[in-house]
Design brief:
This protein has one domain. The protein has a five-stranded antiparallel sheet with strand order 1-2-3-4-5, with helices on one face. It is α+β, with helices and mostly antiparallel strands and about 70 residues long. The protein is globular and about 25 Å long. It is built from two helices and five strands, in the order ββββααβ.
């Protein structure tokens, strides 16, 4: 696992497990979530997005299964 720090007001860091297509998000409050079946191109778009939190809210939440871990 290679967590990457994120410049965001809500997200502390994120990681992507490409073989499993799992996006892992750790929020600044310490909670972690995994989002399942996220395509690689969506992760790449999130990395490039100027606002990671906004991208997560608009393009990932409600579209992919998830679990708090």
């Amino acid at each position: 696992m290679t967590w990457m720090a994120v410049d965001s007001s809500t997200i502390a860091r994120m990681d992507y497990d490409e073989p499993r297509r799992v996006l892992k998000i750790e929020f600044k409050n310490g909670t972690r979530y995994e989002y399942y079946d996220v395509p690689t191109n969506i992760f790449q778009q999130m990395k490039a997005a100027p606002s990671k939190g906004h991208f997560l809210a608009v393009s990932i939440k409600g579209r992919y299964r998830y679990a708090r871990v």
